[in-house]
C-alpha cells in the first residue's frame, strides 16, 4: 500500500481515532479499552491500550491509542500503519527511547520494550492476526515487515490525562 493510500484511509478514520482517544482519556480508561471494531475487519470485543512517548524531533509528548494483545504478561502492539510502506511515527519515536509508558483500561505503567525476532516474532504475529485479522491484510499490502513491540511493565504510574500530551496523535 502506498503512503498516499494509507493517508486516505487515515483521513477517513481520523475522526473515529480522535474520538476514541478522547473517550479513553476523559474517562480515565473506564471507556475505550474494549471497542467493537467489526466495521474495519476486527472483532466485536477488541482490546485497546494507549502509549505515551516523546517525539524524536519535536520533543512533544504524544498519546496514541492502539489495539493490543496480552501474551505471557506482556503487552504487544503492532506498528502496522494500516499497511503503509512506511512505519508509523509512534514506532519511530519509541525506537529512540529505552522505556515507554502504556495504559490498559484504568491502569498505567512505565515499561521496557523490545522487538521479538525469529520464531518468537512468528508466534506473536500469529496470535495478533488471530485476534485482529486485518493485520494479515496490512502485511500483504506492504513489502516492509510490520514490526511488533512487546512492552513489559516496570511500575505503576498515574493514568494518562489529556493535558499530558503536548502534541496531537501522529498518523
Automatic annotation (TrEMBL):
Pfam families: F420H2_quin_red. InterPro entries: F420H2_quin_Rdtase, Split_barrel_FMN-bd. It catalyses: oxidized coenzyme F420-(gamma-L-Glu)(n) + a quinol + H(+) = reduced coenzyme F420-(gamma-L-Glu)(n) + a quinone. Gene3D superfamilies: Electron Transport, Fmn-binding Protein, Chain A (2.30.110.10). Belongs to the F420H(2)-dependent quinone reductase family. This is Nitroreductase/quinone reductase family protein. It comes from Novosphingobium anseongense.
Amino acid at each position: 500500500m502506498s503512503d498516499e493510500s494509507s493517508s486516505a484511509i487515515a483521513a477517513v478514520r481520523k475522526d473515529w481515532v480522535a474520538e476514541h482517544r478522547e473517550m479513553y482519556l476523559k474517562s480515565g480508561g473506564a471507556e475505550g479499552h474494549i471497542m467493537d471494531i467489526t466495521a474495519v475487519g476486527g472483532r466485536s470485543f477488541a482490546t485497546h491500550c494507549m502509549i505515551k512517548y516523546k517525539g524524536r524531533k519535536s520533543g512533544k509528548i504524544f498519546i496514541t491509542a492502539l489495539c493490543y494483545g496480552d501474551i505471557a504478561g506482556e503487552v504487544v502492539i503492532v506498528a502496522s500503519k494500516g499497511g503503509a510502506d512506511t512505519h508509523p511515527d509512534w514506532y519511530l519515536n519509541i525506537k529512540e527511547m529505552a522505556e515507554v509508558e502504556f495504559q490498559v483500561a484504568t491502569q498505567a505503567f512505565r515499561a521496557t520494550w523490545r522487538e521479538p525476532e525469529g520464531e518468537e516474532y512468528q508466534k506473536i504475529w500469529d496470535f495478533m492476526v488471530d485476534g485482529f485479522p486485518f493485520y494479515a491484510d496490512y502485511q500483504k499490502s506492504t513489502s516492509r515487515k510490520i514490526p511488533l513491540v512487546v512492552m513489559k511493565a516496570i511500575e505503576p504510574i498515574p493514568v494518562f490525562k489529556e493535558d499530558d500530551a503536548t502534541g496531537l496523535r501522529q498518523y
